[in-house]
Amino acid sequence: MGRGGGGGRGGCSSGDMDEPLTPAGRFFLQPEMQQVINCAIGFQNPIDVPAVKDEITRTLLRYHPRMSCLLVRDKKGREHWRPAPEVDLDKHIILVPEEEDEEEETNGGGGDGVGEGEGENERYVNDYVAALTVSTPMCTEKPLWEVHVLPPRRRSCVLRLHHALGDGVSLMSLFLACCERADDPARPVTIPGAGGGAGRGTRTHPVTGLRPAGVAWRALLVAWYTLLYVVDMLMHSLGSKDDKNPITGGPGVELWPRRMVTTSFSLDDLKAVKRAAKATINDVLVGIVSYGLARYFELKSPKGRSKDLRVTGLAMVNTRQSPGLQEISSMMAKGSKSRWGNQFGFILLPIYLKKNFCDPLEYVTRAKSMLDRKKLSLEAHFSYAGGALIMSLLGPKLLCLRRIL
Asked: Which positions fall inside the O-acyltransferase WSD1-like N-terminal domain (predicted)?
């Protein structure tokens, strides 16, 4: 009870089967980083813990060997993955006591109505995840993942996975491998619009159908925007900073208490704005963030701001050749164009903040214009390749000294 297999490689305690971490994995393990992914999942029914253990043994430990590996360091301090003799699921599946739930309800109160109950439940989960973000680092005496099962009436759990195991695309693909379709459990789970069928995992080339002059012009734009944005990224890493603003942190900001608040948007509303601005959903979301920050800064400065503020965001970009989510078996196969692991770069997003309010749709159109230029550049690929090169040649300490933001 409570013990899962070691991915078919149990019983090996020597270093013969150790595998070195990728440069990105080593980077996320540095004390200055310690990136942990916290994912909250809600369910319709109370969570059946024994069934969860059986499913983890059947899928999670079976499909991904890293989920049953320990993090070890050699004599030179370099990190490696080592297969664990066994995986004790009781140490990975953490049951949150009912007492903590009752104490939270006493302190924060709860609603009587259905809507109020749902809001109170959402606040509880948000506060729990916020507390995890400033908790102690994950224990390296066991594989670097946990499942926190919240009290039964919450019908929620929180997955904690160290970023060294993989990026969001990898972990979402692994999560889908643990699910079944409601209409046909025998068929694999797919994301609408993400693939399935002969065309899955393919991308229409942006220069297809262009004349030679158009191809040359596009190549010049790619070269120009790549140079422009790479220089901007280097300037940020060398000391260029944003203007001081109401959300600017201070010394030790990584240890400050966290507050997590969630909201929801109507997909129909997002699509309506998308059509009006001839943009994408991502363009609309960036515009919403820009407009929200502008309004927040105005509220924090009742007398008005004397100038426009320079604020820069950061966005992660999947650098795999095959876009979107892929089947876990194809990601683990050798020679795959969508390999498992941390394969992403980042781009800087200058947030548009005017000192005087304007048409909210203008924030979306400006976000679209900026993101269209970003899509023409190789900024994300440069950040991924550059980071891997620095990690391999100079080590993680130097990379951690120069934070981009």
From this structure: 134-284
